[in-house]
């Protein structure tokens, strides 16, 4: 390694970063191709996004160990956009979304994405996972999938029933199922074998089996790296006047930014190095998406699968993710014909497995027992994405989250402890506003008037003027003659607020 000024090594962790970059490259390669094919675009465009994610975004400040590229989480939205507006408009949408991310990062809005309800984000990913699985089951059987998410799910029973009687479809399904089995079982192989990522091993084995036994399955169509790139034209830029295109741009921006910054928070928990600078990371993602848009490629996000592989492989600096982009570029430039040998059902199997991992079953079970409202938001968001579409599904989830927050903020609870002897102890907690006055007063007036009452108000986060006055009036007139007056325990001065 070259020594810098003062005798210091310029790249002190090059050995670790070089080894990690190879691991990340091997993880990213099948996913880049698979996401592109599932998105309805040439396979090479997935590699272009991976290259930009390594060479451009990888060099920028933000999160030092997070790796960016095309993500399964945007597959459904990209497919819908390509079907609705065409491949030429995709670049304009991605470019505009990238410019919006740059602007938001410059305005220091990156940290605010952490305020988005986790239930909405996980519901979004669950909905994407369900639609991705449903769509890739058609591909695994060698069939054309319906366009809408609801159509994909509704048509599955008939499609699979028809595949059972079709020998070519059965062979294709077998290749897809075998791919999933290899990915799942790969974790049980010896450590030396696991040095090769399971997804890559599954695709290589499926490709070898298809070639050796001449299996009748569809393979990836190859048109070359330069042939796949489409620079946005003026006619495509004019599509930005369409409200539906603007809605898609906003959906790309929201989902890509949220997924990237949530991924950054997760990656920070995996290592002890520098923490993520969220506004700079948002700008790095924006620069990458702007470049991808200019090249007509897929949108990018930070990808937790590659990022965790990068950390686990021992990466120490951003050099590992930059080098992974170099390896993707060399593969795309020197070995593009290899892609033409890859069977589509194998890529479908990889994406079905990726879609399954997007569904937070463990989180849902925990939420259902502890925070049922959040679990319902997660499920409704996922169902809305499947039955309506991505953008409106996320908006429904956000609206529910806001409604739940408003309900929680306006909720007040009265707990009464009456042992039958001594004073009756009552405690108000939550937020007391004039909207809850009828309920509060009805509950308090039902307390016995001939017994001492101790009313604890320390659990109130907020009390407006109407509630303060009403509670004081109730306390002054509630007790019967000869009974001790109501004793009020006020909130601590630091948390007491009045209207």
Automatic annotation (TrEMBL):
Ranges annotated as spanning the membrane: 18-38, 82-103, 115-138, 158-186, 198-220, 240-262, 326-356, 376-403
Alphabetic keyword roster: Membrane, Transmembrane, Transmembrane helix
Compartments where located: Membrane
Pfam families: Sulfate_transp
Start and end residues of each stretch annotated as Disordered: 476-499
Membrane topology note: Multi-pass membrane protein
Listed InterPro entries: SLC26A/SulP_dom (IPR011547), SLC26A/SulP_fam (IPR001902)
Residues annotated as domain SLC26A/SulP transporter: 14-381
Name of this chain's protein: MFS superfamily sulfate permease-like transporter
UniProt source species: Streptomyces clavifer
């Amino acid at each position: 390694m070259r020594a810098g000024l003062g005798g210091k090594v310029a790249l002190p962790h090059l050995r670790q970063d070089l080894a990690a970059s190879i691991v990340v490259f091997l993880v990213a390669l099948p996913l880049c191709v698979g996401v592109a094919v599932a998105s309805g675009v040439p396979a090479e465009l997935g590699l272009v996004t991976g290259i930009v994610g390594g060479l451009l975004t990888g060099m920028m400040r933000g999160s030092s160990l997070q790796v960016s590229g095309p993500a399964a989480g945007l597959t459904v939205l990209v497919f819908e956009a390509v079907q609705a507006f065409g491949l030429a408009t995709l670049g304009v949408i991605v470019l505009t979304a990238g410019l919006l991310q740059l602007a938001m990062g410059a305005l220091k809005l990156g940290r605010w994405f952490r305020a988005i309800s986790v239930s909405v984000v996980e519901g979004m990913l669950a909905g994407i996972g369900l639609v991705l699985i449903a769509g890739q089951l058609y591909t695994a059987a060698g069939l054309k999938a319906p366009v809408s998410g609801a159509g994909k799910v509704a048509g599955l029973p008939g499609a699979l029933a028809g595949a059972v009687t079709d020998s070519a479809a059965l062979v294709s399904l077998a290749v897809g199922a075998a791919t999933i089995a290899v990915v799942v079982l790969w974790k049980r192989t010896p450590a030396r074998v696991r040095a090769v990522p399971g997804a890559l091993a599954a695709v290589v084995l499926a490709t070898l089996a298809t070639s050796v036994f001449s299996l009748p399955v569809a393979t990836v169509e190859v048109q070359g790296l330069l042939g796949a790139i489409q620079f946005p034209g003026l006619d495509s830029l004019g599509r930005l006047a369409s409200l539906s295109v603007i809605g898609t741009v906003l959906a790309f921006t929201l989902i890509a930014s949220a997924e990237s910054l949530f991924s950054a928070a997760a990656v920070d928990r995996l290592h002890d190095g520098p923490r993520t600078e969220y506004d700079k990371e948002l700008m790095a993602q924006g620069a990458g998406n702007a470049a991808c848009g200019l090249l007509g490629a897929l949108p990018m996000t930070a990808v937790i699968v590659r990022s965790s592989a990068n950390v686990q492989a021992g990466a120490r600096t951003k050099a590992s993710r930059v080098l992974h982009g170099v390896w993707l570029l060399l593969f795309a430039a020197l070995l593009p014909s290899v892609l033409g040998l890859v069977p589509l059902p194998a890529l479908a199997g990889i994406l079905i497995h990726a879609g399954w991992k997007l569904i937070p079953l463990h989180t849902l079970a925990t939420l259902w027992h502890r925070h049922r409202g959040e679990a319902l938001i997660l499920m409704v968001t996922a169902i809305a994405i499947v039955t309506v579409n991505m953008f409106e599904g996320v908006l429904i989830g956000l609206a529910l989250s806001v409604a739940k927050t408003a309900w929680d903020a306006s909720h007040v609870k009265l707990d009464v402890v009456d042992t039958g002897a001594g004073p009756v102890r009552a405690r108000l907690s939550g937020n007391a506003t004039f909207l809850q006055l009828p309920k509060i007063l009805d509950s308090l007036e039902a307390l016995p008037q001939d017994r001492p009452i101790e009313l604890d108000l320390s659990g109130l986060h907020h009390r407006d003027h109407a509630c303060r006055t009403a509670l004081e009036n109730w306390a002054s007139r509630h007790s019967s003659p000869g009974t001790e007056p109501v004793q009020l325990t006020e909130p601590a001065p630091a948390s007491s607020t009045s209207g």
